[in-house]
Predict the structure.
Amino acid sequence: MKQIITHFTDDDLYKLTMCCAVIDNYPRAQVKYQFVDRDNRVYPPGFADELRRQVELLENVVISDEEIAFMRERCSFIPEWYFKYLRGFRFSRHWAKVWQDAEGHLQVTFEGNWCDTILLEVKVLAIISELFYIMTGQTDKIKLNEYYDKSYAKAGKLLGAGCVFSDFGTRRRASLEAEDTAVRAMRDCQNVCKWEGKFIGTSNVYLAMKNDLTPVGTMAHEFVCAIGGMYGPQMANHIAMNAWRNTFRGALGTYLYDSYGWDIFSMNFSEDFANLFKGLRVDSGDNYEQLMKIVAKYKSLGIDPRTKQVIFSNALDTQKAIEIHRYAKDLCIPSFGIGTHFSNDFEDLQPLNIVIKLVAAKITESWGFYNDTCKLSEDDGKHTGKPEVIKRFMEAIHFNPNPPTED
């Protein structure tokens, strides 16, 4: 079996930026992650054994001088000290445990230093996705020539409609070649004429380098969720925004707000943060309802929402993005991060519905226990974590604003 991940920066930019922020703010933090297949899929016999071998092969994947030079040029917000850290970074098989239960369901956990294990998630998800198609004999459905034309047509529709968009598809791609084909097609379409819209790049740093594009991305839910585990969900967004500001000084100014839902985030999103961050990212819930909450919040702070960016990334396809753009363009500065629809949209090939979520954290290795954490999605049925932890966190943030008074 071929080695699936062979380039260190074959990863989402936000994993690298979050790693930088973790070292800067929580250098001794320890975490646990848990794999979830939302379809409760049965994997082929021997799948865990091959996945374990692929994780072991990551130990020979190190960052190259070319990758460092590219990130220095295109990611000016990254401090120089972080490149020295990346030069010395080495993966370890001991951070991950992989097995299948008696029914064949896949089990994957990570545990270790947060600044180490944070760089496993996207790579392992991409390995699982590609490996599944290989081991189930479905690679013949990945027809790249046809996919180039299909991706080019998608880009033409989005660009013609005025959409600003990027590729977010690494974690559930059919293969690296499939994602590369889609990115190349969208780049080529962008370059043929002067469109109203714009293809701004890809979250995959290696593919951005390969195709002379800008790597895009800021943060993921795990940054807020780990802080929620260490300090509680009520102030997690406030602490996370302060930590992000401490590291990037106003750069990378799009905040992912929905780790614990809109209501508690809104209470933490004060005027100083609203002015500091360039915009917000919608990743769950009804896109239109979330947009109107964002617009109302900015207006309540005396800020014109038309000056703020809103990135939509919640299970989008071409048509959904175009429809949202038409609705949102006079309310904010909309843009779109589109994932699986770009990197895994082949006929008769079902994308995996898989995630790896951070489920426990402690601020230092000297603590004898972890604090459980969870993610509370705006989409019903997509909360991630132990049921009792989800219940406890929901009770903590859904307080009664008008408690009964005593007689």
Summary: The radius of gyration is 21 Å. The chain has a mean pLDDT of 96. The chain is about 45% helix and 15% strand.
